[in-house]
Specification:
about 260 residues; alpha/beta; Metallo-beta-lactamase, Chain A; five-stranded mixed β-sheet; 8 helices; 11 strands; about 25% strand; RibonucZ/Hydroxyglut_hydro; Metallo-B-lactamas; MBL_superfamily_lactonases; zinc
């Protein structure tokens, strides 16, 4: 059944990096500016955050920024983030607080998606078992240990499931071991699939190009997820929303406007 939904795209930071990070084998020496997005999704059954962006303190504090992000250069520049782009700041502009969030759904555990957990302490956090298991190996780049210290209190799932009525968690592994996308029903108009980092750019979808980083270099699984998302979109007439595509982001409502 279709649901009344409001979706606020939240620009939590921007990130400049070599394009090959997003498109495997393409874009060497070509640098792009990418949005780091989270989404506030309001349903008749509660409010859900899809991802939470970066840890502001690691970006705003020079010593921490150097410690965490200098080793990523020149492939990545440190993210650029303001106080106003923190999740609590966005919520305050809507007259809300963290207490008004019913759950946080994490697509995966990389720092630009899970780092902001420090700003939503106390929220119910959903994650995939495969993602936690991979993080526990210590072999995953892009995860900062302090950002997953609360994992023992998270709600851990295995596979697709209904997050709340109208929102369905969709398996899309490859970029990471337990990466998840989100299918959103709407009362009017096409459903929406938040691809997460299964598809950073529209190019990943259009040309079926895997992300530059794949868990254990498994390009085949990443491509299978892209094709699965496209197949789901065809069957349901859903829109596919890539996650780090600046041109696409510029087509979305500017906060505090929302998509419904």
């Amino acid at each position: 059944m279709s649901r009344d939904i409001r979706i606020w795209p939240l620009l939590t930071a921007t990130h400049r990096y070599e394009k090959v990070v997003s498109t495997r084998g393409r874009g060497h020496s070509e640098y792009i500016d990418a949005p780091i997005l989270a989404y506030l999704i309001e349903t008749s059954n509660g409010r859900v955050l899809y991802d939470v962006g970066c840890d502001y303190h690691k970006i705003a504090t020079p010593a921490l920024r150097a410690h965490y992000f200098d080793p990523m250069r020149p492939l990545f520049e440190p993210p650029v983030m303001t106080q106003a782009q923190r999740i609590p700041s966005y919520l305050a502009r809507l007259g809300l607080s963290i207490r008004d969030i019913d759950l946080v759904f994490l697509s995966h555990l990389h720092f630009d998606h899970a780092g902001g957990l420090c700003d939503v302490a106390g929220c119910d956090v959903h994650i995939q078992q495969a993602e936690v298991d991979a993080a526990n190996t210590g072999d995953v780049s892009g995860i900062f240990a302090d950002e997953i210290e609360g994992a023992a209190d998270w709600r851990v799932h295995a596979g697709a499931y209904e997050v709340v009525p109208g929102l369905m968690a969709i398996e899309s592994p490859g970029h990471t071991a337990g990466h998840m996308s989100l299918f959103i029903e709407r009362a009017k108009g096409a459903p929406i699939i938040l691809c997460g980092d299964a598809a950073d750019l529209r190019e990943n979808l259009d040309d079926e190009v895997a992300p530059g980083y794949c868990w254990r270099d498994d390009e085949a699984t990443a491509l299978a997820s892209i094709r699965s998302l496209k197949s789901l979109a065809r069957r349901t007439q859903a829109e596919l929303w890539p996650n780090h595509d600046l041109a696409f982001f510029n087509t979305l409502p500017v906060f505090p406007d929302y998509f419904s």
